[in-house]
Design brief:
alpha/beta, two-stranded parallel sheet, 5 helices, 31% helix
Length: 211
């Protein structure tokens, strides 16, 4: 499968690139700094320098792909709209290109407090205030996915640990998993996202995940 990755130079993005190539996928790594990110040369790796808010560049990176993985990062203080407006741009161009499958990465606060509830974890008064600015960015990104006609999955991760995959983690649809240790290795996030491309178990759902 040809996979376009947005956020490929981040901690999770680099794990996805490595694992996707190992699994035999063709990878399009999109970003401003892909040629200085230290990616190894590989016949199935295409590095695409581009700006996330340029319609044509995003469209060209997506067109002809089988799926998109979005692991966009940015500031945590609310001054950076990369996560939300980036998702808006990606979903718009996916629909123009006729590519339907996307798996995005957000934060745990966008999960529901319980099964069937419309209230999110980040709406609880006990939710840490320092996580609210980035949580609101994740919420907006999730809303853009919901409003699209795409086959989306939104991974709502707790604290990310920059470490390789263990293969040992828990998931749940729309709520936090049990047990929940409030952390997940970046390698395990990548492993789950690539596995979900094959299984399609969580179409149009959020996913809680934890080591």
């Amino acid at each position: 499968m040809i996979i376009t990755i947005f956020g490929s130079t981040g901690q999770v993005g680099k794990q996805i690139v490595k694992q996707a190539l190992h699994n035999g996928h063709t990878v399009r790594a999109f970003g401003r700094n892909v040629f200085t990110a230290g990616f190894p040369e590989h016949e199935r790796l295409e590095l695409i320098t581009g700006a996330l808010f340029d319609d044509k560049q995003v469209y060209n990176a997506i067109n002809g792909s089988g799926a998109v993985l979005s692991v966009l990062g940015g500031a945590f203080d609310g001054t950076d709209n990369t996560r939300s407006l980036g998702m808006k741009k990606i979903t718009e161009q996916m629909q123009k290109a006729g590519v339907k499958r996307i798996i995005g990465l957000g934060g745990m606060g966008v999960l529901s407090i319980s099964e069937g509830s419309t209230e999110l974890l980040m709406d609880e008064t006990s939710y840490p205030a320092e996580y609210l600015p980035v949580g609101n960015e994740h919420r907006k990104a999730f809303q853009f996915l919901q409003a699209s006609k795409l086959d989306w999955t939104f991974v709502c991760a707790p604290d990310l640990v920059d470490a390789d995959a263990t293969g040992s983690f828990h998931t749940a649809a729309n709520v936090a998993p049990v047990p929940n240790n409030f952390k997940i290795n970046t390698g395990d996030v990548a492993l789950f996202m690539l596995d979900e491309l094959k299984r399609n178990e969580y179409i149009k759902e959020r996913v809680g995940i934890s080591n």
